[in-house]
Design brief:
mainly alpha; 8 helices
């Protein structure tokens, strides 16, 4: 990052190669829109170049800085969507172009059900789960990105997991599987 701050912009390729897929997946899990996720990923790296001098190593890692910008970019994008009254794709039509990797006894239907349940969560809950479970960030990093305490992350994560579990196991008639 110091090289980028000192004007060696070609060093940005290293950051791009290291974080592009992770950032794309983060945006994709928030929207389930491949095109939008690609656009937001590109915009994030443009912002990273624009604001490269705002990075301070003593304030955290590059990864945390990038994800904080990603959170802000997503918020800005949602505000712009609301302003222009863009329509949101119905949940039943959400089928990303990303191939799902199945492991263990999980089927593609299980992953689809999980994605649908994830989309029904409150945006803050969805964001916490995506940052922690899908992106593999530590609670300390999530706290920094979200601007809350680690204790608050733990409480909110517990509630988000409970809500996700309830949505995942709910049946259309309102009963739950055990």
């Amino acid at each position: 990052m110091k090289e980028i701050q000192n004007g060696r912009l070609e060093a940005m390729a290293v950051l791009f190669d290291r974080y592009q897929v992770r950032i794309y997946n983060y945006f994709f899990k928030l929207s389930f829109d491949a095109s939008q996720s690609e656009d937001l990923t590109q915009q994030l790296f443009i912002r990273a170049l624009q604001y490269r001098n705002s990075f301070r190593p003593e304030q955290g890692r590059v990864k945390t800085w990038l994800y904080r910008m990603a959170v802000n970019l997503h918020i800005d994008h949602k505000k712009l969507q609301a302003k222009h009254r863009m329509t949101v794709m119905p949940l039943s039509d959400v089928h990303g172009n990303v191939a799902e990797v199945t492991s263990g006894n999980f089927t593609e239907a299980d992953y689809s059900t999980l994605d649908k349940a994830l989309m029904q969560l409150e945006p803050d809950q969805r964001q916490l789960i995506i940052l922690s479970k899908y992106q593999g960030l530590k609670y300390e990093e999530v706290a920094t990105i979200m601007g809350i305490t680690v204790a608050n992350v733990k409480v909110k994560m517990h509630r988000a997991i409970l809500a996700l579990r309830t949505l995942y196991f709910s049946k259309p008639n309102g009963t739950y599987e055990l």
